[in-house]
User: Which sequence fits this backbone?
């Protein structure tokens, strides 16, 4: 299933409780099709979030996201998301081709459930690909490699071009740790 933003209202803010995302997570625990739909919805939401982030930056007399320097972008994106209640965010480069986003308190991870054993912040995974792809002006992919809902101390996503992330994923499938796979990409 593919989800596309259809109207100018798609960038309007809609406050939802954490319980909404966590209920979706609970429903998707054993439903791969629902998890994929959630990633697609997150992608569309990420594209809309780009508009919101751009407007937020303009209100603060900052440059558009794609024009922010490597020092300002992580700080401002983290501040923007924290203000909306997503959680704290750390953004780091791994090597030349991979970006790491991590959070010890990301709102989507339902830590009240028994650990699932699998990363499962599906909406956020799509959100990162949509938002950061819009900023980069190129398709990007996201892969959650650590998740609080799976028992990790934090949620962590790797962001890269689809080809680079496919390389990282294949290396992980062969038993390479995510950090080594990402650094070698």
Assistant:
């Amino acid at each position: 299933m593919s989800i596309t933003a259809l109207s100018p209202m798609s960038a309007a803010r809609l406050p939802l409780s954490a319980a909404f995302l966590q209920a979706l997570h609970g429903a998707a625990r054993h439903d791969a099709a629902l998890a994929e739909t959630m990633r697609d919805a997150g992608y569309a939401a990420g594209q809309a979030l780009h508009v919101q982030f751009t407007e937020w930056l303009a209100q603060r007399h900052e440059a558009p996201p794609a024009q922010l320097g490597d020092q300002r972008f992580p700080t401002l994106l983290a501040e923007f998301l924290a203000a909306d209640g997503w959680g704290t965010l750390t953004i780091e480069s791994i090597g030349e081709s991979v970006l790491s986003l991590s959070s010890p308190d990301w709102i989507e991870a339902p830590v009240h459930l028994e650990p699932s054993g699998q990363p499962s912040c599906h909406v956020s995974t799509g959100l990162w690909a949509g938002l950061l792809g819009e900023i980069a002006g190129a398709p990007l992919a996201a892969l959650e490699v650590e998740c609080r809902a799976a028992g990790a101390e934090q949620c962590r996503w790797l962001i890269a071009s689809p080809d680079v992330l496919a390389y990282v994923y294949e290396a992980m499938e062969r038993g390479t740790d995510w950090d080594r796979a990402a650094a070698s990409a």
About this structure: Residues 32-59 form the longest helix (28 residues). Residues 1-9 have pLDDT under 50 and may be disordered. The chain has one domain: 18-183.
